[in-house]
Specification:
The complex is a heterodimer of chains A (202) and B (311). Chain A has 202 residues and is α+β, with helices and mostly antiparallel strands. Chain A has four helices and 13 strands. The chains are: A alpha+beta (202), B alpha+beta (311).
Chain lengths: 202, 311
């Protein structure tokens, strides 16, 4: 457990596989969100870490056991989402060329996979989805776009994701979905929660 | 009862409705937002007779011109904006108040305006703060624009007309105390020497997401460059790929992948957000114990101010 600020810590899960580390981070976050210990402010799971912020009331002792995996954390209930996509993304030709598959194979491969929401960040409702088939793992674009259209379904590295709003971005665009990913006025405000599963449908 | 409000005659450079933010939503990617200078907002609110966390306005460099609809009392803290910073200003129906900086380019770059009764925009996810980057909260999700009308709530207590709010320090040479960041160990000795030895210039390209600093490049271990994303702390100092520091603030992305060399102690963030663009910023190491004591001292100061106002 690494101290980050006065009352914030980073728990690191050093399993070799990022998905496994992320699953432990997610479960630890779900446990804290469920327990609501006094003084807990934020518990943010990410790729290999759980960031915990507390008030001065927070007892950080629990974090050591959570990081070491000594506290049994049951899996929490998750939702499944089916996302309809119009696959007309600007980067389809480039992704297909670089990964050496035809556009049809690319879409078939992309849509055959079941994805898991690993964590959110970057922008409200932006989910990093695990489960992208390995042959589609590509580095981000060299130059990010200044504006990616809202709803863009995109890939970069081991992740797939959907841009909740129009914003700058460096991921490869495959298509557009009209799923309501973030609406501050709705309960809950985001469509995807950590651990949810997602399938893409043409 | 007439509805009280403030009409925005001039918006100022970046004026937003802010309270103390909406913590608790970061795991869903939603930043806490809230006042960049929470101490200033709390002090101004107490002076105006409000709860510490009532919604007010955050002024940036050039303040707005506000016109009262009905009688409205307000107070500015954290910076010398308007005719009587640190004191309550009583506006009668139709009065206009220009919240200009006393000396442009000098003193605090930011100020907090508290309005007796609070700015009464709807609560969104538990807060009235504007999240500028994701365009929600505050007044329809946007910084103030000319012609906006800000609803004002019903005052709970009378403002203190006889009191002077404590001035908060603002300087053009600032040393920020920092704790080691989660990736501090990935930076070599030379990089750390650069970071702690150099004076950085506060870039005008700074915003509520983060403050950019310009100066000698901090070279890190290349392995640190492709870091998996992790949750970000308020005040985290991340080093970009060109070696420049960015201090992450209220609207930072909740997760990020740049290596973080240090974390500015919470009690010193006010010095940073009050600094003018171009100010010289240095970093000095501190311990968690010192950082916690500084926060406790701040709470004691604000508590004493609140008690003094009540008595």
């Amino acid at each position: 457990v690494r101290a980050v600020g006065e009352y914030s810590w980073l728990l690191e899960f050093d399993d070799g596989d990022e998905r496994k580390a992320n699953e432990r981070a997610r479960r630890a976050a779900a446990l804290l969100h469920g327990l609501k210990p006094d003084g807990l402010v934020e518990a943010i799971p990410a790729a290999r870490t759980l960031f915990v912020e507390g008030s001065p009331l927070f007892e950080a002792g629990i974090l050591v056991g959570l990081e070491a995996g000594e506290i049994e954390v049951p899996p929490s209930p998750v939702a499944s989402h089916e996302i309809h996509v119009r696959f007309d993304g600007e980067d389809l030709p480039a992704v297909s060329a670089v990964s050496g598959v035809s556009k049809e194979e690319l879409l078939e491969t992309f849509c055959a996979a079941t994805y898991t929401v690993g964590f959110l960040g970057f922008s409200p409702g932006f989910a990093y989805l695990y489960g992208l088939p390995r042959r589609l793992h590509l580095p981000r674009r060299g130059t990010p776009r200044l504006s990616v259209p809202a709803g863009s379904v995109a890939i970069a590295g081991p992740y797939a994701g959907i841009y909740p709003a129009s914003m700058p971005g460096g991921w490869h665009l495959l298509g557009v979905a009209d799923a309501p990913l973030f609406d501050a006025g709705r309960t809950p405000p985001v469509l995807f929660a950590p651990g949810d599963t997602v399938r893409f449908v043409p | 009862v007439t509805e009280r409000a403030l009409l925005v005659r001039e918006a100022g450079l970046l004026t937003t409705v802010q309270d103390l933010g909406r913590p608790g939503w970061s795991a869903l990617g939603i930043p806490a937002a809230g006042a960049l200078d929470p101490e200033a907002l709390r002090i101004a609110n107490l002076l105006a007779g409000n709860e510490e966390g009532a919604a007010g306005l955050e002024i940036t460099l050039v303040g707005p011109v506000l016109e009262a609809r009905g009688d409205v009392d307000l107070a500015v803290a954290g910076g010398a904006f308007g005719p009587t910073p640190g004191h309550v200003v009583r506006l009668r129906d139709g009065d206009a108040l220009p919240l200009r900086a006393a000396e442009a380019g000098r003193g605090s770059a930011r100020g907090a305006v508290a309005v007796s009764g609070g700015i009464d925009v709807p609560l969104v996810l538990g807060s009235r703060s504007t999240c500028v980057v994701a365009r929600f909260g505050g007044l329809h999700g946007w910084p103030l624009r000319k012609g906006n009308v800000l609803p004002v709530g019903r005052p709970r207590r009378a403002p203190r007309l006889d009191a002077t709010a404590p001035a908060l320090p603002a300087a053009d040479r600032v040393t920020l105390r920092v704790l080691p960041g989660p990736q501090a160990h990935l930076f070599g000795e030379e990089a750390l020497r650069t970071f702690y030895g150099a004076a950085y210039r506060l870039s005008p390209e700074s915003n509520r997401i983060g403050f950019r600093l310009e100066g000698p490049a901090v070279d890190g271990d290349p392995a640190a460059r492709e870091m998996p994303s992790e949750g970000t702390a308020l005040g985290s100092v991340q080093i970009t790929s060109d070696g420049q520091p960015i201090v992450l603030l209220a609207e930072r992305p909740t997760t990020g992948g740049y290596p973080k060399i240090a974390t500015v102690v919470a009690a010193d963030l006010g010095l940073l957000v009050r600094a003018q663009p171009g100010a010289a910023i240095r970093f000095a190491p501190a311990t968690t114990g010192e950082a916690r004591s500084l926060l406790e001292e701040r709470e004691t100061r604000i508590g004493e101010w609140a008690r003094w106002l009540r008595d």
